[in-house]
Write a structure and sequence with these properties.
The longest helix is centred in the middle third of the chain and has 29 residues. A hairpin with a 6-residue loop joins strand 3 and strand 4. By secondary structure, the chain is mainly α. It is 57% helix and 10% strand. The strands form five sheets. Strands 5-7-6 form a three-stranded antiparallel β-sheet, with no helix packed on it. It has two domains: 35 residues; 292 residues, no CATH class. The protein binds zinc ion.
C-alpha cells in the first residue's frame, strides 16, 4: 500500500505488511548471525551470534548502570534491560527465530552475581551458610542445564499446507503431540516454547524445567538476603535502616542494584512456576490451555485428564518419565512413546 508524504515533496512510501516486516527482521538477524566472526589461527571462524552478543550487551548495560549510583538513573537502565529482553523474546516467538542469546544472558547473570558474592559476601559468612547456598546454586544450575540438554530423541518436521497453516496432528488423536513453529518440529506433550532454553518444553525436559523455575526464586531471595545483610553490616546498621538511608539519599549502589536485578529474575521465575503448577494441576499443558481458550472452553482434549489434582500430577510425572525413552512418530502421523529397552 502506498502513502503520500505529509510534506509537499510529493514523495511516497510503501507500508510493509506484517509478513514483510517479519521477513525484514528475520533477514537482519540472519545477516548478523552470518557476519559474526571471531579471530582464529588460520582465519576467522563463524561464532554463535547469540552467545557472543549477550556478554557484550550485558557488560555495556552493567557499565552504564553502575557508572552513577543515583537511583533514578540505575532504575532507568534496569528497565532498559527488562524491556530489551521482553522485546527480543516476543521477536523470537513471532518471527519465529531461535537464538542462544537468552542462555548466554542467563549464564552472564549467574556468573556476574556469583562473582560479586564470592568477592565481597562469602568471606564474611559461616561455612554452613556457604555450603547451603552452594547446594541450592548447584541444584538450580543442574536443572537448567538438564532442561537445555534433554532434547526430543526423534523429531518429525512440521507439515505446512499450501496456505501456510501448520498441520496439527493431535486434533483427532489422543496423543499429546503438538507442533512448534519456532522449533519446526512436532513435540510430544509440548507445553510451550521457552526462549530461555532455546527449545520446547515437552515430555523430554518438563521435570527439569519445573525444577529450575521452582528453585530459581529461592536462590534469588537467598542471594538478596545475604547481600543486604552484608551491606547493612558493612555500614554498621540494620537492613531496614540501610534501605531507609538509600531511599532518602536516592542512592542505588551496584551491590543493591544487583539485589534488585536478582529479585526481578526471582519474581519472573515465580510467576512461571505458578503458571506451571496451575496447568499441571489442571492436567493440561500450556499449549492445550491456549488451544482450549481459543475454542471458548476449559476442557482438556486429553482423555487422561481428570478433576483430581493428585492424579493429574501423577499422570504428568509418569508421562515425563518417557524422557528416558524414545519419542517415535510413525507413518500414520500419530505420536507414541515407548520405554527404552
Ligand atoms: Zn519449540
Amino acid at each position: 500500500m502506498e502513502y503520500c508524504c505529509s510534506c509537499c515533496c510529493g514523495s511516497t512510501f510503501t507500508a510493509l505488511s506484517p509478513d514483510a516486516r517479519k521477513e525484514r527482521w528475520r533477514r537482519v538477524f540472519r545477516t548478523i548471525e552470518d557476519r559474526t566472526r571471531i579471530p582464529w589461527i588460520g582465519g576467522a571462524r563463524q561464532a554463535n551470534a547469540g552467545v557472543v552478543a549477550a556478554p557484550m550487551v550485558f557488560w555495556a548495560l552493567q557499565t552504564v548502570c553502575g557508572a552513577i549510583a543515583w537511583a533514578p538513573w540505575v532504575l532507568l537502565w534496569l528497565a532498559v534491560v527488562a524491556a530489551h529482553l521482553i522485546w527480543l523474546q516476543l521477536m523470537c516467538l513471532s518471527l519465529p527465530w531461535r537464538t542462544d542469546y537468552f542462555i548466554s544472558w542467563t549464564a552472564c547473570s549467574i556468573g556476574g552475581l556469583y562473582y560479586v558474592y564470592v568477592e565481597q559476601v562469602l568471606p564474611t559468612q559461616h561455612v554452613s551458610t556457604v555450603l547451603l547456598g552452594h547446594v541450592l546454586l548447584v541444584m538450580v544450575i543442574a536443572a537448567y542445564i538438564s532442561a537445555i540438554l534433554h532434547r526430543p530423541l526423534s523429531l518429525r518436521p512440521i507439515d505446512v499446507t499450501a496456505d501456510g497453516t501448520i498441520v496439527d496432528i493431535a486434533i483427532a488423536g489422543t496423543d499429546r503431540c503438538y507442533p512448534c513453529k519456532v522449533c519446526g518440529y512436532y513435540i510430544t506433550r509440548r507445553d510451550h516454547h521457552c526462549v530461555w532454553i532455546n527449545q520446547c518444553i515437552g515430555v523430554h525436559n518438563h521435570r527439569s524445567f519445573l525444577a529450575f523455575v521452582l528453585g530459581l526464586p529461592f536462590l534469588c531471595v537467598a542471594y538478596a538476603i545475604m547481600v543486604l545483610r552484608f551491606s547493612a553490616a558493612s555500614s554498621g546498621t540494620s537492613v531496614m535502616q540501610r534501605l531507609v538511608y538509600l531511599w532518602h539519599e536516592q542512592q542505588l549502589p551496584a551491590l543493591e542494584a544487583g539485589v534488585l536485578y536478582a529479585l526481578g529474575c526471582g519474581i519472573f521465575a515465580a510467576a512461571l512456576s505458578l503458571g506451571q503448577i496451575c496447568s499441571i494441576s489442571a492436567g493440561m499443558t500450556t499449549h492445550e490451555i491456549k488451544r482450549a481458550s481459543r475454542k471458548g472452553t476449559s476442557r482438556s482434549p486429553h482423555p487422561h485428564t481428570c478433576n483430581r489434582c493428585y492424579t493429574n500430577w501423577m499422570t504428568w510425572w509418569c508421562e515425563c518419565k518417557s524422557s528416558s525413552g524414545t519419542v517415535r512418530i510413525d507413518s500414520t502421523m500419530s505420536c507414541t512413546t515407548k520405554e527404552r529397552s
